[in-house]
Specification:
Strand order of the largest sheet: 2-1-5-4-3-14-13-15-10-8-9
CATH topology of the largest domain: Aminopeptidase
CATH class of the largest domain: Alpha Beta
Number of strands: 15
Distance between the termini: 98 Å
Shape: globular
Length: 319
Amino acid sequence: MDTINRRYIWIFFAVLIVVMVAAFIINTMLPKNPKPYLLKTNTGETSSGEYYTVRDEKGVTIFQTGLAVHIDDRYISENNVEYVIIKIDGMNARATIVQKQEEASQNINSDKAQPVSAFGQTVPVQAVKASHVVIYHTHSDESYIPNAGKASQPGKGGVFNVGSVLTETLKNAGVSVTHSWESHGPHDINAYHRSRRTAAQLLKEQPDAIYDIHRDSAPVKAYYTTVNGTDSSRVMMVVGRSNPNMKTNLDYARRIKARADNLYPGLVRGIFMGKGDYNQDLYPTAMLFEIGTDQISQDLAENAARCLGDVLIRELGVR
């Protein structure tokens, strides 16, 4: 009897082992769940109140931003000095000068005399030709803390309102604009993948340019300025250096900055060339604008949007 019982026990364990081995083999042969598709765009950003500080080799601050910075990222300053980041230590980075740019603003002589609009009072000025632009917001939750009470409002961020001000400024000058209110939340690494669909749809309209409007999360001092005696935020342009056609988009950013430097000196704080493509591989005149920061009031960001609109009207008029 004992012999029979032992035999059944051995059979039971043998069957159990066979079942476990078979289950393991089947599991390894099944296709794995696909990982989310990630674009080359690096969307790593700091939390509200956190930011990177980039200094030169003498320890002088060059710029601060909530965007993630990486070795070999570049920055063209307000004074057209180009830097490359050579070292990163936590939230601090070191950069060295690549070259000093020729004052591009010297090539545009007529812009400074007559700004298109003053704050709150837009003077209609028709572009030389019929122009059409499209505007959207990858990070549709981004807000301005002094107004919203928080940095993020999923699906209804203050950047939509800033985009609307830019839209109206352009429209009042005769530029046709499509402003998308599509939400691309959550604010995660796949936000640019979701907004890419929106951008692709907008590009079916064959616009002269496509603008992605954001706000930064740097300290107020990095973005505060006055324009014609009126308080305003500043603007930073972002160009993706993973874009194989980066040079074309960068040339476009430089043209915009040159016009801004003539029309509203100090409005554009610089051009950041970051790791990623920011969907700019889709179009040669795709541009990302950081208008203000989460710590600054939305009113100041809207003032900057009006000024930026004036600048873009001039650029569109000579295309």
